[in-house]
Amino acid sequence: MTASATTGATPPGLARRFAALLYEGVLLFGVVFFAGFLYSVLTRQQHALQGRVGLGIFIFIVLGLYFVGFWTRSGQTLAMKTWHLRVVDTAGRPLTAPRAVARYLASWLWFLPALVSTWALGLHGGGAIVGSLVAGMLAYLLIARLHPGRQFLHDTICGTRVITQHPQRP
Predict the structure, then answer these.
(1) Percent of the chain predicted with pLDDT > 90
(2) CA 154 to CA 157: how far, in whole Å?
(3) Mean pLDDT, all residues of the chain
(4) Main-chain phi, psi angles of 81, to 5 degrees
(5) Which of 5, 11, 36, 115 reaches 20 to 30 Å from 45, CA-CA?
(6) Which of 116, 119, 73, 61 is nearest to 97 (CA)?
(7) What angle (nearest 5°) sits at the alpha carbon of residue 84, between those of residues 79 and 90?
């Protein structure tokens, strides 16, 4: 698809984008599980609390490779393909590797404020953390709802946008 064909594309609805996010989470469960297993085998981890920081960094890198790889190749992760979504730059072109890395890092704005606030307040209970994450994600959705192009904050920061990408019929 050419840049001119995607430049005027309307943004998909927030509900569809959020559904794709939830589906992405389901798919990433397998990626994270396999990455955790691989890490524990490679480091000969004997206890679940051993090497938590290293495991977190390893999973962060694996997730980055997953997203950057899909976004630079086709502009679509598996969940985005299912929900007919595609990420492009503001001119409608595929993402470059540096822009995809920036988008991956900025996309942590979905979760980072909630996690930092629970840490700063000293909240350790699962209910407090989940409640904070839900409230933070709802606030993030509200910010996108107020944006004239219905784009998320990380897309605005990185000069990217998500568009509807229906499969081409033969």
Answers:
(1) 51
(2) 5
(3) 88
(4) -65, -40
(5) 115
(6) 73
(7) 100
Structure tokens at 148: 């004239």
Whose tokens are 């944006």? That residue is 147
Structure tokens at 132: 């904070």
- Which residue, 77, 73, 75, is CA-closest to 31? 77
Q: Which two tokens stand for residue 36?
A: 């955790």
Spatial CA neighbour of 92 closest among 26, 30, 161: 161
User: What backbone torsions phi and psi does residue 86 show, to the nearest 5 degrees?
Assistant: -145, 140
Classify the phi-psi angles of 51: left when phi > 0, otherwise alpha if psi is within -120 to 50, otherwise beta: left
The pair of three-digit structure tokens given for residue 110, joined into one six-digit string: 């979905």
Tokens of 20: 């794709």
Which contacts (CB < 8 Å, 24+ apart) does range 93-97 have?
A: 93/3, 95/71, 95/160, 96/72, 97/68, 97/72
For the cut 60, the answer to whether the pLDDT of residue 100 exceeds it is: yes
At residue 4, the pLDDT reads 38
Cα-Cα-Cα-Cα dihedral of 77, 79, 85, 91, to 10°? Answer: -20
